[in-house]
Amino acid sequence: MTFPILFILVSVLACGTQEERILVRVGDETVKVKDFLAVYLPQSYPSEEAELEAKKKALDKLIEEKLLVAEARSRGYEEDPTIKEGLQDVVDRALINTLYMKEVVEKGKASRLDAKRFYEADKILLTLSIIHIDSDTLGYLILEEFSAGVPFDTLAVRYSSHPTARSGGKAGTIPLSIFFEDPAFRELSSLKEGHTTLPMENESGGYDIYYLAERSEKEDQPPFKEMEASIIKQIERMRQGKLSYESLERLLEEAKIEYNNAGLALLSKPSYALSEAELAVWTIKIDGKVTDSVGSMLEVYNRFPEGVPPQQLQAFAEYVAQRPALVSVALKRKLDRDPAVKEAIDGFIASQLRNRIYAEEVAAKIKVSPEEVRVYYDEHPDEFFVPERRKLSIIRTSSYSDIQQASSLLRQGQPFEEVARRFSDHQSAKRGGSIGFRKADDVSFKPFVEQGFKLAKGQYSRSFEVHNGFGIVKVDDVQPAYTKEFESEERRIERRLRVDKEKEVKAAFIEELRKKIKVEIDEGLLLLIGRVEEPEGESS
């Protein structure tokens, strides 16, 4: 199990003072710079006026959301207990995310110096062979045989349990940077051609011995400046993957998880055969407190009504324990006071308030009658008309000689599919020339479609000129034009009318709120943030 099982993937902004500044006030609600930057894609504009207008448009959705929240609070909806239903789940996830940020993301940060070292390592190409064995004792015996003149590939076939053993341990040519976060990096960095490493412990178990056949360098590697940002991200992904496993194991130990084997054994009984007393038996304790019972675990895991297979009990228990264990550690570290947790709580409550006001003032007011649906169908016949389509097969070649031979064979009765596979240089040749159903206005195969719509089903054309070559087309099937029946389109029309009405009702309600609630935008700040810097040497 790893951290990512439970963690929500989050986009992390550098929350400096700039990102925390208030950009918009909507009554008592606020939009911060970081909120805007999360939804705005920076780009160049011809003028400040155009830039400001585009940024205001990007702000509109955030302002609308704040208007709905402000109105919901003014009506006292926040005092309704149902608004906070599901809040504990949000808090738990926020605590785990914050723990992950501190234990994995922050510790996995890469510096510019790290990136530079990776860049230099990425230039170096190593042609390697590998032997994987279970013990270092065997590893040293292998090195003695190698020193005595036994070829490395022979030793790999004889001793290695690595997938490359059959090919003499040959792992191919690999950039040194692949090992950047591996314990083997330092030794491989200085390894000479024709030499081996000592047996090195593999993090997944066992020991590895590497043999360097050749060391070379990449040609035409892009400048460091162009690669720096992507290299830093790559190093951080490598580190975070490793830290995720390491820190999870340590944190679960810190949580002091206890399993009640007698209670877990009850889960193997059919659920209907368990008594009330058995359902109440505890199964998991964290830091001395009971977090789960037989009954609570069955609520989560109901795939086996006849009982959980005994061989799955421990894995199941570990899975169930992971979340409360991580929450417990986060609380012990007082991460509930972290701003990220408060933001998650505030965000959840705000979304609940928005949903409540939207349901009452917009969704509840949208009605679409059967008569409206019928009128729309009758007044928009073109929307439900499906034009004729023809299934076509083609032969396309740049050779005049080939197209003539193809025509001749078709006249002799050879199947079109066989002739297409033999003479066509189009990718459809492997399908016997089939390009599927096409409408008369299809432009991707225009000359073939034009000829194909002049033929009857089963006919093929004479050869004709196409771009950079010649072609023949055959009509395999004809799907006549028709109008979709009202009954088949009724629900789709209703959904469309509902969406249209929803937009109208929402726009009217938002306009009403804009008149009621004061909206203040810091235009000076808006203009400064999210700007695209011009490359050096260019001017506006």
Describe the structure.
The chain is 48% helix and 16% strand. The chain is α+β, with helices and mostly antiparallel strands and 540 residues long. Strands 4-3-6-5 form a 4-stranded antiparallel β-sheet. The radius of gyration is 34 Å and the shape is extended.
Q: Give the overall form.
A: extended
The major beta sheet can be summarized as: 4 strands, antiparallel
Q: Roughly how much helix do the residues carry, as a percent range?
A: 40-55%
What's the mean pLDDT score? Answer: 92
- List the quaternary state of the chains: single chain
Unreliable stretches covering 5 or more consecutive residues: 4-16, 535-540
Strands side by side in the biggest sheet: 4-3-6-5
Number of strands: 16
Total of helices: 20
Strand coverage percent: 15-25%
Kindly provide the radius of gyration, computed on alpha-carbon positions and rounded to a whole number of angstroms. 34 Å
Which structural class do you get from the secondary structure elements?
A: alpha+beta
What is the strand and helix layout of this fold?
Layout: H1 17-20, E1 22-26, E2 29-32, H2 33-37, H3 48-74, H4 87-105, H5 112-123, E3 124-133, H6 136-147, H7 152-159, E4 170-175, H8 185-190, E5 200-201, E6 207-217, H9 224-254, E7 257-259, H10 261-266, H11 276-279, E8 282-286, E9 289-293, H12 294-300, H13 313-332, H14 339-361, H15 370-379, E10 385-386, E11 389-397, H16 400-411, H17 416-423, E12 434-439, H18 446-452, E13 464-466, E14 469-479, E15 482-483, H19 486-516, E16 519-521, H20 523-528
Antiparallel strand pairs: 1-2, 1-16, 3-4, 3-6, 5-6, 7-8, 8-9, 10-15, 11-12, 11-14, 13-14
Helix pairs in contact: 3-14, 4-9, 4-13, 4-14, 5-9, 15-19, 16-17
